[in-house]
Amino acid sequence: MPGIRLSVKAIIVREGRLLVLTCRDDEGVWYLLPGGGQQVGETVDQALRRECLEELGCKVRMGPLRFVRDYISRNHEFAATDPDTHQVELMFECDLESEPSFATQPDAMQEGFAWIDVTRLEGCRLYPRILENKLGSAPRSQVLYLGDVN
Fold it and tell me: What is the pTM of this model?
């Protein structure tokens, strides 16, 4: 099994809407928080800024850490196609320093980005799915460990 990958994610909410990446697979459209893997020699802040620039074409300012999750693929629905992934994700509240425009280096299934009303996340195929109810209900004053979830 390869090593554990550290990934950083941006939670960007403006006027009650969450900024997400739009992706597509055989089942249709699904959503992810912008962000990705930290590279060797890069701080968490640098990784988050680089990933948002690549995926959203914008600059962000990293705020407080909000959620931490493990993702161990063999325990979830993608086990058959990706059995050896273990990723730890750090999800930070972020503010935009520039407006999203276009992805310079989109992820493989990324089609673009969208703003989704945070009161309408349930059932919209947002990953990790636990965010559907945690974004609005979890106390913002503490970091919440989500566990090994998808």
Answer: 0.92
